[in-house]
Write a structure and sequence with these properties.
By secondary structure, the chain is an alpha/beta fold. It has helices at residues 3-13, 21-24, 29-32, 46-56, 75-88, 112-115, 137-147, 161-169, 198-202, 204-211, 222-225, 232-239, 244-262, 272-281, 352-365, and strands at residues 36-42, 61-68, 96-98, 153-156, 179-183, 217-220, 286-295, 306-310, 320-321, 335-337, 344-350. Helix 8 (161-169) links the parallel strand 4 (153-156) and strand 5. The structure holds beta-D-ribofuranose and calcium ion.
């Protein structure tokens, strides 16, 4: 993709006012209202639940669909958890679709240790009354992107399995996606292994497909999301507001803090996924730099690691080089990419105070 299109598409996707006319020019109803069309792909998940509620409390977003994927807990739990959030926010107009039960090529690894057995830190809500739409997540993503070519931003909060499945099924889809804003990856070490962030670790092959798709990507990874810890004070503020969203967030937050303490963890949960939503709502919350990002898929210890090549690099631009060849194979180390072009804006810094003001403020106000 040419660099100008990359920058434009990404920043328009992030809702920068100066570039809004590019959206309004489409003449679509949402654009006229200054809204951005998004699909949220998610594996709720404590921080996913907060992120979904934040998105549904944000009038800048026209949420075309919520698609569930297996990740933090199995799909049997992430799907009803997504439906619960839609009901709590009173947004049952948003279609919710069931996605992949397992990564593309691997067995599912979950994170119940962090999110509790039910994915919501042990917070109990009624069974949802809503049911998912009949289409699969990947089918629904294709349908919506094709309906609004160049308009849809995919906000991805879990493993990239559903997105990769949609891209694999429809090779013409990627150029029609405005941008991806992903919670995933890290250029500063992982959280499930020293190398890998959880979402990319669970399905590294899917993440690689997305990074190599040519879609403009904003990578909101652990480099910034680690700086967001939910506290008792945040929960107290949420609990003091009498609306269903604020009360639900307080309940999930209180349970998650208790779950973290019971596990002997020194602090509360990070609000990883809400940072991705917040960065879309207000790009000034994060500071990004362009990188060529690739995903390690072959490592015995490092699968799911995201590697960032800083580009443009002072000349001569070094190539992307593979590992040293084994005896008896190649004569020299393989050059995987002669001249890497940026494929992602990576968030490297965060205004944590502004982030929590946005998150707690909007959840307190309710949907
Ligand atoms: C990511 O992994 C999950 O546990 C969280 O929901 C978040 O999406 C953080 O590594
Ligand atoms: Ca998640």
């Amino acid at each position: 993709m040419d660099r100008r299109r990359f920058v434009t598409a990404t920043t328009v996707g992030l809702g920068l006012a100066a570039l809004r006319p590019a959206i309004a020019a489409s003449g679509k109803e949402s654009a006229a209202r200054g809204q951005s069309r998004v699909i949220i792909d998610t594996d709720p998940g404590v921080d996913d639940a907060f992120a979904l509620l934040l998105a549904m409390c944000s009038s800048q977003l026209h949420i075309e669909a919520i698609t569930a994927v297996a990740g933090n807990v199995p799909l049997e739990l992430t799907l009803p958890n997504a439906l619960r959030m839609v009901e709590i926010a009173g947004r049952t107009d948003i279609p919710v679709a069931a996605g992949a039960r397992a990564p593309l090529l691997r067995r599912l690894v979950t994170a119940a240790y962090a999110h509790g057995e039910n994915g919501l830190g042990g917070a109990v809500f009624a069974e949802p009354k809503r049911t998912p739409v009949a289409e699969s997540a990947a089918d629904l993503i294709q349908k919506i992107v094709r309906k609004y070519p160049g308009e849809i931003t995919l906000i991805t909060l879990g493993p990239q399995t559903n997105i990769a499945t949609a891209l694999n099924a429809d090779p013409g889809l990627a150029p029609l996606v405005r941008s991806v804003v992903m919670m995933g990856g890290s250029l500063s070490g992982g959280n499930i292994t020293p190398a890998a962030e959880f979402n990319v670790y669970v399905d590294p092959e899917a993440a690689r497909i997305v990074f190599q798709s040519g879609i403009p990507i904003t990578m909101v990874g652990l480099d910034v999301t680690r700086k967001t810890t939910l506290t008792d004070q945040h929960v107290a503020t949420l609990a003091a507001h009498d609306n269903p969203v604020s009360q639900a967030a307080a309940l999930i937050g209180r349970n998650s803090l208790a779950h973290h303490r019971a596990q002997g963890l020194p602090s509360g949960p990070n609000m990883h996924d809400s940072v991705a939503v917040a960065a879309f709502l207000d790009p000034a919350i994060v500071t990004t730099e362009p990188f060529y990002v690739d995903v390690e898929t072959g490592g015995e210890l490092t699968a799911g690691e995201t590697l960032g090549y800083r580009v443009p690099h002072a000349p001569p631009q070094p190539p992307v080089r593979g590992s040293a060849p084994l005896l008896g194979s190649l004569k020299s180390s393989p050059i995987l990419r002669e001249r890497p072009e940026p494929n992602a804006h990576v968030a490297l810094d965060l205004d944590a105070a502004a982030f929590f003001e946005l998150l707690i403020g909007r959840l307190s106000a309710g949907a």
